[in-house]
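Final report, Chapter 2: Outcomes

The project's central promise was a pipeline that accepts a single protein chain and returns its three-dimensional structure in a standardized token representation, suitable for archiving and comparison. That pipeline is now operational. To close this chapter, we reproduce one record exactly as it appears in the project archive, with the input sequence first and the structure output second.
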Amino acid sequence: MVKNELKQLIEEAYARRRKFGIYQGVRKFTHGEMCKNVWFMHSIKNQANIACESDLEKQLCMSMEFEKNVQSYRPQPFKLKFDDFSYTPDFIVKCESGLYKIREAKRQSEAESSKYKEKFEEVTHYCAQHGVDFEIFTENDIHKSVLKTQSFLYHLMRGKTVNPKTIQACYQALQKHNIKTARLSEVRRFVESLGFESVVIIQLISRGLLTSNLAPHSLKNAYVSLVGGDV
């Protein structure tokens, strides 16, 4: 259970409206700032562009788009004030379970440096007291080939959201017709014959309910296999 102090900050972060289709957070930054790059990640889960200060933050966003337990997230949601420093989280994450997590994207060398280590220990303690997990995401937490495939799958989704009930119905149809392993082109025709959009197949792959060798430049010979589990 999130305690009142942090709960209010989270509620305010989620109540904050996007501007020009962008969730930017409390720390404003724009293109052209000295020594500052800005990336914009289009998020299907948030139905908005997410402003990121680093490529690693953008990679974390991509990872969360495929993380089944993540319902939504917001960048730089609020500022926490401690005795000797202030801290603005990279992301507040709302899970399907209703719980929240604070996530920080930081290079491994920086996360382990004396500059950040003590600060993150204090932030971890604060979050634990308020019923929220604090997680640090480094470049070692995602394999480059996985990221490449996720990016490709995300492109195939074409920015579309799919109702969870539709995903469940499609998965059950594949189970009912005992389609365990087949060429992607065959599964696509079957799914479309039932009235589903082919993008549902990508959603099933992203949720781990279908496995596939689908990757850039492999569409022609791609196959998919059904996996047991909850939708």
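Archive annotation: The longest strand covers residues 70-75.
This record, like all others produced under the grant, will remain available to the consortium after the project formally closes.
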